[in-house]
Design a protein that fits this description.
The chain has 125 residues and is mainly alpha-helical. The protein is built from six helices and two strands, in the order αααααββα. Strand 1 and strand 2 form a beta hairpin. 6% of the residues are buried.
């Protein structure tokens, strides 16, 4: 009989598992376990060279030299790295610290102008 151990996972992964799991007749936990097993098998597959993947990720080798499975691993890693960098950004704070107004899109895709509060604009003049 299999036992389980609690672990923390990233919110995006859990949200994805909640969406995909029911489509595959799995709970979110079962979907995550399924993805973990796939990852384990991929890492031990003979057709995937972790050294080649590491070389591409370190810019010592070209992406096009990898086979399709290795390219998939590299794309997943790139996506994860980009998400981490995006999550670390706080441009609103950075612009505010620099005394800059800025423009962004709201959740509905509408342009919103973010101006500095009047007191900050006058103190910077």
């Amino acid at each position: 009989m299999a036992t389980t151990s609690p672990t923390r996972i990233d919110d995006e992964l859990y949200a994805s598992a909640k969406i995909v799991g029911p489509l595959m007749s799995r709970s979110a936990a079962q979907q995550i376990a399924h993805w973990a097993r796939i990852g384990r098998e991929l890492e031990t597959a003979d057709s995937v060279s972790h050294r080649d993947i590491a070389d591409v990720l370190a810019a010592r080798r070209h992406y096009d030299e990898l086979n399709t499975q290795e390219q998939a691993v590299v794309r997943a890693e790139w996506a994860e790295r980009m998400d981490a960098r995006r999550d670390a950004l706080d441009l609103a704070r950075e612009f505010s610290d620099q005394g800059r107004s800025y423009v962004e899109l709201d959740e509905d895709g509408q342009v919103v102008h973010r101006e500095l509060p009047v007191q900050e604009r006058t103190s910077m003049a």
